[in-house]
Amino acid sequence: MTQAYLQPSADELGVYDFECNVNEKFFGLTNFILGYHEHIVEIIEPESLIEHIRRHIGKINF
Hints:
Elements: E1 6-8, E2 16-18, H1 29-35, H2 47-58
Antiparallel strand pairs: 1-2
C-alpha cells in the first residue's frame, strides 16, 4: 500500500521519499517507521512526528 506514496529522491540515487497524509496521532505510521528504522535516513517533517518517534524510542527498554 505504501508504494503509491514512494517517489525516487530528486537529490540522491537509491533514496526514496515517502509522503502522505496521516492521522494526527500517527496510528500505523509509528509501527511502519519503527519496523523499518534501519532503512530510514531522516524524518524531515512534521516536527510533531519527529517528537512522537523520539518519545516512543525513549520507551524502549534495553
